[in-house]
Amino acid sequence: MADRYVYFFGAGETEGSRDMKDLLGGKGAGLAEMARIGVPVPPGFTITTEVCRLYLHGGRYPDGLREQVDAALARLERATDKRFGGGEAPLLVSVRSGAAFSMPGMMDTILNLGLNDRTAEALAAASGDARFAFDSYRRFVQMYADVVMGVHADQFERLLEDAKHRRGVTLDTELSADDLRALVAEFKALVRTRSGKDFPEDPQDQLWGAIAAVFGSWDTPRAKAYRRINNISDSLGTAVSVCSMVFGNMGDDSGTGVAFTRDPSTGEPRLYGEFLVNAQGEDVVAGIRDPLHIDGMEQALPASFHELVAAARLLEDHYRDAQDLEFTVEKGRLYLLQTRNAKRTGRAAVRMAVEMVDEGRITPEEAVLRVAPEQLDQLLHPMIDPSAPVRVLSTALPASPGAASGRVVFNPDEAAERGPHEPVILVRRETSPEDFHGMVVSQGILTCRGGMTSHAAVVARGMGKCCVAGAGDIVMDEARRTFSAAGETVREGDWITLDGSTGRVILGKVPTVEPEPTPDFERLMAWADGFRRLRVRTNADTPHDSVVARRFGAEGIGLCRTEHMFFEGDRIDAVREMILADSGAQRAIALAKLLPMQRADFEGIFRAMDGLPVTIRLLDPPLHEFLPHGPAEIRDLARKLGQDPIRLREQVERHHEANPMLGHRGCRLGISFPDITWMQAQAIFEAAVNVQAEGITVFPEIMIPLVATAEELARQRKVVDDVAHEVFFQCDAKVDYLVGTMIELPRAALTADRIAEHAQFFSFGTNDLTQTTFGLSRDDAGRFLPEYVGSGILPDDPFQTLDIDGVGRLVETASRLGRGVVADLKLGVCGEHGGDPRSVTFFHQVGLDYVSCSPYRVPVARLAAAHAALADRKRTTGPATPLEAEALAAD
Amino acid sequence: MADRYVYFFGAGETEGSRDMKDLLGGKGAGLAEMARIGVPVPPGFTITTEVCRLYLHGGRYPDGLREQVDAALARLERATDKRFGGGEAPLLVSVRSGAAFSMPGMMDTILNLGLNDRTAEALAAASGDARFAFDSYRRFVQMYADVVMGVHADQFERLLEDAKHRRGVTLDTELSADDLRALVAEFKALVRTRSGKDFPEDPQDQLWGAIAAVFGSWDTPRAKAYRRINNISDSLGTAVSVCSMVFGNMGDDSGTGVAFTRDPSTGEPRLYGEFLVNAQGEDVVAGIRDPLHIDGMEQALPASFHELVAAARLLEDHYRDAQDLEFTVEKGRLYLLQTRNAKRTGRAAVRMAVEMVDEGRITPEEAVLRVAPEQLDQLLHPMIDPSAPVRVLSTALPASPGAASGRVVFNPDEAAERGPHEPVILVRRETSPEDFHGMVVSQGILTCRGGMTSHAAVVARGMGKCCVAGAGDIVMDEARRTFSAAGETVREGDWITLDGSTGRVILGKVPTVEPEPTPDFERLMAWADGFRRLRVRTNADTPHDSVVARRFGAEGIGLCRTEHMFFEGDRIDAVREMILADSGAQRAIALAKLLPMQRADFEGIFRAMDGLPVTIRLLDPPLHEFLPHGPAEIRDLARKLGQDPIRLREQVERHHEANPMLGHRGCRLGISFPDITWMQAQAIFEAAVNVQAEGITVFPEIMIPLVATAEELARQRKVVDDVAHEVFFQCDAKVDYLVGTMIELPRAALTADRIAEHAQFFSFGTNDLTQTTFGLSRDDAGRFLPEYVGSGILPDDPFQTLDIDGVGRLVETASRLGRGVVADLKLGVCGEHGGDPRSVTFFHQVGLDYVSCSPYRVPVARLAAAHAALADRKRTTGPATPLEAEALAAD
Question: Which has the minimum average pLDDT: A97-111, B267-281, B370-384, B425-439?
Answer without folding.
Answer: A97-111
